[in-house]
Amino acid sequence: MQFSRKLQVGGRDPALGQGVSLDGVTMRFGDFLAVDDVSIDIAAGEFFSFLGPSGCGKTTILRLISGFVEPTAGRILIGGQDMAGIGPNKRPTALIFQNLALFPLMPVWENVAFGLEARGVAKQERRRRAEQLLELVALDGSGDKRVNELSGGQRQRVAIARALAVEPKVMLLDEPLSALDLKLRQHMRAELRTIQRRTGVTFVYITHDQSEALTMSDRVAVMSQGRIEQIDVPDAIYNAPQTAFVAGFVGEINRFAGHVVAADARHAVVETDVGRLRGVNRQALRPGERASIFIRPERMRADGAANPADENSFEAVLDRVGFEGNVVNLFLRTNAGREIIAQQHNSDDLSGLSSGAWMTLRFAPDSAAVLPAEGRFEAAA
Amino acid sequence: MKGVLSSVRRRYGGVATSLILVSCGLWALGLVVLPQLMMIDYSFRPSLPPAKQGGPEDIYTLANYAALYGNPLNLAIFLKTIWSSALVTATALVVCYPVAFFLARMAVGRTAGLLFIALVIPYWINEILRTFSWLLILARNGFVNTVLLDLGLTQEPIIFLGTTPAILVGMVYAYVLFMVFPIYNSLESLDPHQIEAARDLGAPWWRIHWRIAIPHAKPGIAVGCIMTFMLAAGTYAIPAILGGPKSRWFTEVIYSQFFEALNWNRGAAYAFILLIMCLGFIALMMRLFRVNLAEVTR
Ligand SMILES: Nc1ncnc2c1ncn2[C@@H]1O[C@H](COP(=O)(O)OP(=O)(O)O)[C@@H](O)[C@H]1O
Ligand SMILES: [Mg+2]
To answer: Do A118 and B198 touch (CB under 8 A)?
Structure first.
């Protein structure tokens, strides 16, 4: 199933995407603040993801962009044009719903052609375009089937074809892969990315699955409680988190809470229950401030040598070993009872490790992040 | 059905289950099947004085059915009843679909509750009383005429009572609930995202109804139409109260055969003609809406 053929709907050039700008967008439902002063510029043709836990306001942002709700405050621009007062049927967007919302009473091809029908395209032409789009999503020959005769992955593709049929400038996708099993999901990620590249349409993609966001997107906005925590390329989201929330939400991470005892322009030292640890000081913290230091499991080196006098090293006892083939996860416990994960590449050194062994853990200061303790997120630490 | 029976049997044992079955059977037989069979039997026999009953003239015949065609006045009333009932059904559908849609898809919280109550409360009042209230509204010096006169829209009071339109208005009013609820029920199960998806794909509101909501509500619309039509065709009270000599309903003809002409045989035949017409209407509706019995009874 490849999309090797060029997308040519109705013989036209690929529809090119338009940029989307949110300018101080706020959405209240009664007293509840679902989206809190969000400002973003999404470039034309970009694959942009919103990543955040369930209930953080992602769907609300998509509904604001597609026009189903008007923001309480702020402006939304698509292709530079203010969208205020323009209904969803008049915006150059197409939304793929979380539950797909295919029309079960219509055959597949009528689903795909529905947008064309609404635009007054003649039936024969509709059928022809629907078949082209079905071919694009590798569903040729399924046009006369009923929606409920299709598998989950096929329905997914019908939804994509139906949205592409209206030649949107911006495609909005609300966790479109969440209902699929893992294998299909990974496959569809690649397909979506391919379709996006081929069509040049701007994709605004919502997910609570961090690996989905990181593998597919040009840029990711991490959200929490209606607010944007960080907007960055995937690599920076993972390697250079700007807030404690981003560090903790995206991927596995080891966290040590404490307070800053020394700081310069580059690094800060945090006094923790395993001693003083040094990490990158991205938020210009000053001595005395409450902070946490975050280290990815794969950045932790573990060895048997007892030399805890080194900087950024401490001792922990091995609880158990999680063998995953190419990598090995070491689950350790510090003197203070804190759980640590250290991920090592599989090697001969690791054979013969047994539970209860004391190990020394160390990490490079540049691979750790010192971030301010934000009350609302720190509670869990 | 089988499931129900076996669960009853598990709970009450074989003897009690048999008793329940037998008494249900007797009830159905004695109160439903036998009287109907007797009526069918009546309808095929000539009307004879008691002395001649069972005699050589008491033979099976289609004369009672044919009599309707021999009587242009009654035939006209019959056809008018069918046509008017269809009109009542169509009007009720046009009035009720938006109400049902609003109730099912747009109204929330208090508004929905109040609307429901407003719809149901009139049905706590007896049908006769409800119809009499229309008598007051449509009377020569009633509410409608007062308003029309005050607004200067008419110089003379309009005579509504005793006309077919008065009956139709009364019937639409009397049967709205039977149209609203089935449609409401089926619209309620429509995924709101489908409406939004259609809108997002550029469909204006009427196309959303035409292509998404109405097809989804089809079984409910069919049920509502069937109920309204049956009730309209079979009502006696409303035409009796709001109608007049010139707007007779076929049920009134049947009534007069039974209790004025004392010709039960012809009355029974007329009643069956009406019933067959109604069954025909049901079949037509189900074909028209391409729904089957399973969907309708869902
Ligand atoms: N129409 C609405 N009325 C009231 N609250 C709403 C409405 N839509 C969303 N919310 C609330 O806004 C918050 C964010 O919802 P949503 O955008 O769906 O989150 P997500 O898609 O990230 O899971 C939730 O707490 C939800 O309960
Ligand atoms: Mg959501």
So the answer is: yes
